[in-house]
Amino acid sequence: MRRSVIIPVVLHALAAVATLLWLLWYFIPTGNVFNGLSTLLILVLAGWTVFKNCRSEEPTSDVTLPAAELPLPDVRGPVVLVCGDMLDALFQGSPLRKTAQGWWLRAGDVTRLTDVVRSIQTQFPRQVGQLSVMYRCLPDHHQDEAVLRSALKTLRQQCKQITSLTGFTLPVVLSAEFSGPETPWIIVRGDKPIVCPVNDSPQAFIDWQQAEDNILALPAVSEAFSFIRNTLAEELEKPDRLTPPERAFSVAMRLGTVLPCTESVWADWLYTRPCLRFTRKPGQTAPASLFPDAVLPLLPPYASTVHGGQRTRRLILLMWLCALTALGISALNNRDLIRQVSTDLQRWNAIPMNHYRPKAESLAALKQDALLLERWQRQGEPLRYSLGYYPGQRLWLALQQAIDTWTPPTAPTAPEPKSVPKIVRLDSMSLFDSGKSVLKPGSTKMLVNSLVGIKARPGWLIVVSGHTDNTGSVQLNQTLSLQRAEAVRNWMRDTGDVPESCFAVQGYGDSRPIASNDTPDGRSHNRRVEISLVPQADACRLPGSKNASQDVRDVSTQEMEK
Q: Is the alpha carbon torsion for 370, 372, 373, 377 positive or negative?
C-alpha cells in the first residue's frame, strides 16, 4: 500500500515540475540567475509536497471497512451513503440496496461518513465521484431538538472533511419521515416539489394536492415542510466559525411511515399548531417504498465516475493554468517586439534625411532589428513568441521598406582650383647697376625673353613689384625698389604699347625676402623685380572688350582645352 501511494505522488510531482519549468525557461522573459533560483525553489517545493502527501496518505483512523461491506467494483450510477436514524429497519440486514437508477449503501452513524469515503477512495478510487450522502431524519424518534441539531452539525463537519479528502463536495440529500396521514414521497429539488407515488408516474405537487383524497393531508404536509425549513435546513445552512454551511442537494419527505410518539420533536411542533392531531391505527403496514428512489435519477450529473484522483485533477488544472499563462506571456512578448520595432521606425521617420549622423544611427538600429527577424525566419522564432500571433514577416517588410528609403550623403565636390597668377622674377643686378634705378643698355634682351608669358588681357592687372636686400637704410631700399619697379613698368608700357592703367607698381624694399640676407647668395636672390598677372574686375579694359568675369571664364576654358 505504501509503494502504491508513493509512485503516483512522485509521478504527479514530476509532471507538475516539468510544466512549471517549461513555462519558466521558455516563456517568462527573465535572466538565467532568476530562472536558476526559481528552478531550485520549485524543486524544493515539489520535494516538500511529495513528502507531505505521502504522510497525509497514511491512515489517520483505525477504521477501515472490509471489502465485503463495500461491494462496489465497477458499479454504475450514483452511490448514496445513507446515515442517520433507524437504518436497521431501512436496510433489513443488507448493507447495500441495488436499483436500476443507482445504489444505496449503508454508512451507519453520521460520524463514520469520512471513514467510509476514505475506505472507498482507497479500494475503489474510480467510484469516489459517484458518491453522495443521504441523511435520514425521523423527528418522531428525537425527544430533544438540541440533539437533533447536534447530529446535523456533525453532518456538516463530516462533509467538510470529505471535501478536504476528495477535493470536491458530495451532494447531500435530506430525507425526513413524519407520522401523520399517509403520503407518497415528495421530492423537493428547486422551487417545484414533485410527488412520486408508488407504481405510478411522478406528478407536480400542485396537481397532487388538488385531488380530493389528499385534501386532509395538506395541513400536515405544510407543517412538515415548515419543520424541515425551520429546523433541519436552517441548521445545515447556518453559518459557523468552524464548519461551512451545507446546502441540501434535494429534500425527500413523506408522512405516515412511523408511529407517532407522545413526546418528540415532531409532537412538540404539532402541539403548538391547534387541531393537528394524527394517530396511526395499530397493525397498519409500513409503506412499500422505504427509500426515496425518485432522488436517484437527479444525481447522475453531479455524481459520476472520476478518472484520476484529486491529484490528477489538480495536475490538469495546473497544466491548464500554465498553458493559459504561456499564451498570455507569448502575447505580451509579441506586443513588446511590435513596440520595439515601431519605436525604431518612428524615430527613423522623425529624423530628416539631411541630418546624416542621427539618421545613420537610426538606420543601424533598423538593420539590427531586420537581421534578428531574418535569423528567426531561417531558424524559427523562439518558443516565447510562437504561441501568440507572431508578426515577424509583417515587421520585417516594414523595416525593409524604411531601409530602402535611405539616401546616402553625396560626396563633397572638390573646389575649383584658384587661378594662381604667373610670376616672372628678374634679377635686379642683371637689370640695374648697384644702387641705380636706370636699366642697363644690355637688359632689353633679358626683359624680352623673360616676359614672353606676360601679356596684357582685359580684366587682368599687371603687377610690378621691386625688392632689395637689407643692405643700407630701410627708406633708401624702399625708394630704390619702387623706382626699379617703375623703370620696368615704363619699359613694358613703351615697348608693348600697353596702357598705363593695366599696371600696378609696388616697392617693398627688404620687407619680403625670399632668402637669408646673411649670405651673399641670399642677398642676390632678394634683389629682384617680380612681374605677375592678377584678375581684377575692369582692370586694363579696352574699348569693346568683355567684362572681367567673362574673360576669366574664357581663359579657364582655354586652359582646360589645352
A: positive
